[in-house]
Amino acid sequence: MAENLADKIRDQETQAKKIIADAKVESANLLAFAHANAEESLKSTKQQCHREWRESVSEAEKAAEIEAEKIMAKGEAKALSYYEEKKGSVKEVAKWLVKEVMATYGS
To answer: pTM for this one?
Structure first.
């Protein structure tokens, strides 16, 4: 009976070692799977953030372009207005300049 009991104990120890070895393999597999999922999630999140950043930069560039066009149009209108305002006085200034030159240097 003692021999039979010792065999049973050895069998149980062998089964326990096998269970532990299987558990270690399974835990390593689960850890590898979790690691792979974490890396994939990180990669996906980085790609999404980069895509959102590119979209926000693109939108900002479009808004800046529209604002620049408005500023340019406003500047052109202001320049044209200034030109139209001063256009009439050019003849007077030219006449005055000719008089001054003629008075200084003669004809």
So the answer is: 0.53
Measured between alpha carbons, how far is 19 from 25 in angstroms, rounded to an integer? 10
- Give the whole-number percent of the chain exceeding pLDDT 70: 97
The rounded distance, in Å, linking the Cα atoms of 67 and 74 is 10
Write out pLDDT tens, residues 25-43: 999 999 999 999 999 999 9
User: What does the buried/exposed string (b/e) look like for 75-100 if buried means 16 or more CB atoms within 10 Å of the residue's CB?
Assistant: eeeeeeeeeeeeeeeeeeeeeeeeee
Question: What is the rounded CA–CA span in Å between residue 33 and residue 35?
Answer: 5
Q: How far apart are CA 56 and CA 99, in angstroms?
A: 62
**Residues 22, 16: Cα–Cα separation, whole Å:** 10
Structure tokens at 18: 């096998």
Res 1 pLDDT > 70: no
